[in-house]
Design a protein that fits this description.
Layout (H helix, E strand, L loop, with lengths): L1 H12 L7 H12 L2 H12 L14 H14 L3 H10 L2 H6 L5
Length: 100
């Protein structure tokens, strides 16, 4: 728990995270427990197509999980989530489309 407290203090020093402590906590938990992604990886990857047609820049499992969490925490529709990816500073960083 002490390590989590230290990481949270460091994260909240960044001006972007200090405005949304909920996402900062979730981000820290996801970083501490990357095994969370392996729990849903098989389900997510089974939804993909196994051909060479279509988009080749599919999101990672981590990005899909983080986008779902962001959508639920913020109470967004899928359209609003898509808009937030382009309009918000926090959304692309939390989803890991952009780096801090």
């Amino acid at each position: 728990m002490k390590l989590l407290d230290e990481q949270m203090r460091l994260k909240l020093v960044h001006p972007l995270w200090e405005h949304d402590s909920t996402l900062a906590v979730i981000d820290t938990v996801l970083e501490q427990h990357p095994k969370i992604y392996t729990l849903v990886e098989k389900d997510i990857l089974s939804l993909g197509k196994n051909n060479n047609m279509g988009r080749q820049d599919s999101p990672t499992v981590e990005q899909i999980v983080r986008a779902g969490i962001y959508k639920m925490v913020k109470g967004l529709t899928y359209e609003e989530l898509e808009y937030a990816e382009y309009d918000s500073k926090m959304c692309p960083i939390f989803i890991r489309i952009l780096k801090l």
